[in-house]
Amino acid sequence: MSTGPKADPELVTVFDTQDEPEAMVVHALLTSAGIESLIANLQAPQDVLPGVGGVVVRVNAAQAEEARRVIEEYRNMPEPEQEDADDEDPESAPEP
Fold it and tell me: How far apart are CA 5 and CA 62, in angstroms?
């Protein structure tokens, strides 16, 4: 008994931006969380016409809530503190 071809799962947008590199970071974040996603340009290739149309990240509807949660957790993470080379304590620096 054949059930016919399976339809592609419904994809929903979980992130949109005008900045393609930002969409690529979100895509990598979702991939690392085990969520399959794809990046879609809405109207124009961003390398040809940057800022025209925008870019979206889409996921399977069943994983949309989890994807949004992962993105929100990432946005709320505190940024790591960075030390300037000028601020180093000269006494703690290794001797040559």
Answer: 20
Nearest-angstrom CA–CA distance, 10 and 41: 18
Under DSSP, the state recorded for 5 is P
Tell which phi-psi region holds residue 93, choosing left (phi > 0), alpha (psi between -120 and 50) or beta: beta
Domain made up of 15-76: CATH architecture: 2-Layer Sandwich (3.30)
User: pTM of the predicted model, to two decimals?
Assistant: 0.66
Specify the amino acid at residue 63.
Q
Q: Exposed, middle or buried: residue 75 (CB in 10 Å: 0-12, 13-18, 19+)?
A: exposed
- pLDDT (tens place) for every residue of the chain, 96 residues total: 445 445 567 999 999 998 889 999 999 999 999 999 999 887 765 566 665 678 899 999 999 999 999 999 988 988 888 766 555 555 655 655
Classify residue 56 by its DSSP letter.
Answer: E
